[in-house]
Amino acid sequence: MAKSSSDPVDPRVARTRRDVIAASAASLLEEGWGATTHAEVARRAGYSKATVYAHWPTTVDLMRDAIARICEDATLPPAGGNLHEDLHAALSALAQTLSEGRYDRLMAGVIERAAQDEGARDLRDRLYETATTGVRGVLTAGLRPDDVEPCLTMLVGAVLVRATYEGEAVTSEFITDIIDRALARVEPTAGH
């Protein structure tokens, strides 16, 4: 007899899933996609490879749950109602995440696989959405709808390039400068 979706989950299964997802998220952030194998996750979580494969038959299945966990754990700075200050806080949070070196390793692995795998493309989109949620929210609250995407691309792109490609610190002064440049071309909505 099949379990219905309203049947309680066996606590052992729930614990196994929690442990394996935590181990896969940690491995993904620390070592990147290539090192996050079923064997490595099983070793970290303390379960057999067979158990991991039973719940996550493919690497993309494993990565999907790991990335969902990483995205759920993301925190956003609170918005205070001042467009410039809120953008500064959101971009500083993004820069801090990038400076830790974990997110760029994660994105590199996802981007590399996205060209060949639809599941990896979905993961890439989820990561981008999560990484830009704070900035997007501030822009949506403070700008006309037509200005949100161009400003998001300019601001997030500048932080990404500075932190990952150039390997430079994303200073407060740099963030202020890019915000000033992006906002100089748009008209904030009333109250901002």
Automatic annotation (TrEMBL):
Lineage: superkingdom: Bacteria
Pfam families xrefs: TetR_C_11 (PF16859), TetR_N (PF00440)
Keywords annotated in UniProt: DNA-binding, Transcription, Transcription regulation
HTH tetR-type domain sequence ranges: 14-74
DNA-binding region: 37-56
Single GO MF annotation: transcription cis-regulatory region binding
InterPro entries, sorted: Homeodomain-like_sf, HTH-type_TetR-like_transc_reg, HTH_TetR, Tet_transcr_reg_TetR-rel_C_sf, TetR_C
SUPFAM superfamilies: Homeodomain-like, Tetracyclin repressor-like, C-terminal domain
Name the record gives this protein: HTH tetR-type domain-containing protein
Organism of origin: Streptomyces poonensis
